[in-house]
Amino acid sequence: MGKTIAEKIISSHIVGGTLVKGESAAIRIDQTLTQDATGTMAYLQFEALGVPRVKTERSVAYIDHNTLQSGFMNADDHRYIQTVAKKHGVYFSRPGNGICHQVHLERFSRPGATLIGSDSHTPTAGGIGMFACGAGGFDVAVAMAGGAYHITVPKSVRINLTGKLREWVSAKDIILKVLSILTVKGGVGKVIEYGGDGIMTLSVPERATITNMGAELGATTSIFPSDSRTLEFLAAQGREDDYIPLSADTDAVYDEIYDIDLSQLVPMAACPHSPDSVKPVSELKGIKINQVCIGSCTNASLLDLTRTADILKGNTVHPDVSLSISPGSKQVVGMMADSGRLGELIESGARILENACGPCIGMGLSPNSAGVSLRTFNRNFIGRSGTADAEVYLVSPETAAYSAIMGSISDPTELGKMPSFTMPQRFKVNDNMIVPPAGQSEDVEVIKGPNIKPFPTGQPLPQSITADVLLKTGDNITTDHIMPAGSKILPYRSNIPHLSQYCFEVCDAAFPQRAKDAGKGFIIGGVNYGQGSSREHAALVPLYLGVKAVIAKSFARIHAANLVNAGILPLTFVNPDDYNNIELGDQLELGNILSEIKNGSEITMRNTTKNTCITLTSSLGERDREIIIAGGALNYIRETLG
Q1: DSSP designation for 197
Q2: Which residue, among 414, 394, 77, has the nearest Cα to 216 in the 3D structure?
Q3: Which of 71, 396, 406, 587 is deepest in the core (most CB within 10 A)?
Q4: What is the DSSP string of 425-454?
Q5: 344-376 pLDDT, tens digit each
Q6: Can you tell me the distance from the alpha carbon of 493 to that of 449, in angstroms, rounded to the nearest whole number?
Q7: 3-class secondary structure, 302
Q8: CB burial readout 501-517, b (16+ within 10 A) else e
Q9: Could you report the per-residue pLDDT of 5-17, keeping only the tens digit for each?
């Protein structure tokens, strides 16, 4: 029986476990990346492991999230990351060089290799044929130290793309179509692989747009074959030596197969407040807008901004609309400037932001109250923009640019003939903003500012736990609900005590104080608890606040792993209806939890307030059980290493 692309890469990197779907496997990691919102914690954890030098082929620290420096906090974190990277063998991408996923795609990603990053959109590199996964910071620290990355071997989904996109329809519309089919939880436990003759019509940057938003499906990763289009891109980056051909075997077996005819697609939009709430733009025409934001790691390539310039050239942004553009990298903005296309954007009235995440994570450019914002980003969760009552739609750069001129949601296919675009034979390559590590580590001083506080660590699992329900949430709770981003909060990502006061702010502003007063407790969740970002702060902050277990109907993959690493039990209801029989303030008792976790058996929980019993289970493998029993991954590794 043949292998899928993912199975080929996993089998060539497997160092433990087995290549059986649903079973645990440990894989060797070739590359890692971090960004500054999660990087400080990841490097503190790496230092705690006591390994003097990273053992990957390439690890890169990017500064792209916390670039708004309204106080000393972000600048201090950047200084810490730069010095710790220099000391321990990590390349450092300076602020202004670009967004981690865009730059990594351009300069470091390679087909057939493995990559994990402390950012959920790390699967962007799947557009070049890489097995790339988002992960918690501690998992990245372990990989940098030479440890394996542990995954549950995913199922395989094949999406066959046939035909060719019509004019003004783009890669963003493809992934929005996929989201409309699979939903935000349809990719959980799966790898999404793309094939069919239609993929040859898509360049690597277009493929990367699709794999980037595969994170919104909940997928382990998404991946394209490595073919002549891949070689074309690598050669244009001066990296043709990194190319290898890679495709699925013709007799590979997939668990699900979907067919999408590209020629039948139309411009699409994800409506508030979920990436899978998708409608054709034609059904939304005429909705008045206040803001348009173009860019982010999803849609800030040279192609994206060239298409934007094609539409804006000779036009003026509507007077009722604010338009911002965030280029993805120094390479992109440099080539736009050299070609004169950047000037066309500026002349139209667009506001050109720095090469960073910016408004995508609520770092500035929040919409007006109750405003309607069109964004080419990957997430439109409620409050993520920084404005709680904003209506955020996710669209392609083409739809965004045309709508910015018209002042309302508009269909770009009305524009007529689309100018042609040819991928450059040679991109502008200048890596002067990437600082290599020092050759002599002992000569480097690591500098920590006063905002950098120790991270919390868990305690070994006791025989029993009795505590109150501190919070009950609904379905599809995101890590933005648990630990919000934005310019007010992100500067404190290295200060867990300060950060804790914002935990679950969107859901229940009284939660942090209630948790501190109780000292310990439980959280009750619905379906797909913890979807969204890979931020491990959504586990570390609840740990700091005394959360002992999260009991939910189901969990998102990365967040469940982060809870385990923190030493918090992720437990699921055997009967989902039991969720309805627990209320805020109920006292719950896990009377034999240590033995039940050790034995991998079902877990009996007693609601002492209502005098009822509920059966729970966990998806913990043997290693995860040992981590939980030890009180978290750091304790476990320290014990393992003696």
Answers
A1: G
A2: 394
A3: 396
A4: SS-----TTEEPPPS-GGG------TT--P
A5: 999 999 999 999 998 998 888 999 999 999 999
A6: 13
A7: helix
A8: bbbbbbebeebbebbee
A9: 999 999 999 999 9
